[in-house]
Amino acid sequence: MDKWNERFMTLTEQIATWSSCLRRQVGAIIVRDKRIMATGYNGAPAGIKTCVEKGVCLRNEKQIPSGTHAEICYSVHAEQNAIIQAAKEGVSLKGCTLYCTHQPCTVCAKMIINSGIKEVIYKEGYPDDFSKQLCEEAGVKLIKYDTLK
User: Fold this and answer.
1) Which residues of 99-129 are buried (b: 16+ CB within 10 A; e: fewer)?
2) In whole angstroms, what is the distance from residue 110 CA to residue 105 CA?
3) To which H or E segment does residue 31 belong?
4) Which of 14, 35, 126, 129 is the most exposed, having the fewest neighbouring CB atoms within 10 Å of its CB?
5) How many C-beta atoms lie closer than 10 Å to residue 64's C-beta?
6) Which residues touch 61 (CB under 8 Å, ≥6 apart)?
7) How far is it, in rounded angstroms, from Cα 142 to Cα 22?
8) Going edge to edge, which strands form the sheet with 119-124?
């Protein structure tokens, strides 16, 4: 395996520890030419109390299954936060690779496609086959990390 892939995936796992989500800790890094363009982890938007601060996960409280109703959550996904960070700083993501601890959901896949990211390397699966379909149709490579070994 390419040592850069190992380095970036290890870093996504470290960034995931910054998450303020009680249900799932996710980290993401967007890279071009071995340079980090942006990072993200899942957590509440600026100015909103996190689930850790509230002491409760809204999704768990309402028994919402993974992969459904992403809009009913205080957290912004790690991939979304990384893309938003790049936009705030004026960084183009055209042609980049996104490393993520988990496979992107459908909403994240749409943002990845429109941001110009061309490849996603993820470690853990996620119950959302439609996101895979969208990436395939748009020509975004979706690669499970353990297949690179």
Assistant:
1) bbbbbbbbebbebbbebebbbbbbbeebebe
2) 9
3) strand 27-32
4) 35
5) 16
6) none
7) 26
8) 35-41, 27-32, 97-102, 119-124, 141-144
CB atoms within 10 A of CB 53: 11
Nearest one of 49, 66, 60, 71 to 22, comparing CA atoms: 60
Using alpha carbons, list the distances in angstroms from residue 31 to 70, 87, 91, 119, 123.
25, 14, 11, 10, 16
pLDDT in tens, the chain (149 residues): 699 999 999 999 999 999 999 989 999 999 999 999 999 999 999 999 999 999 999 999 999 988 788 889 999 999 999 999 999 999 999 999 999 999 999 999 999 999 999 999 999 998 889 999 999 999 999 999 999 97
Which residues are marked as active site? Answer: 79
Residue 45 C-beta-side C-alpha neighbours within 13 Å: 5
State both tokens at 26: 């996710």
Residue in this structure with the two tokens 């353990």, named with its chain if needed: 146
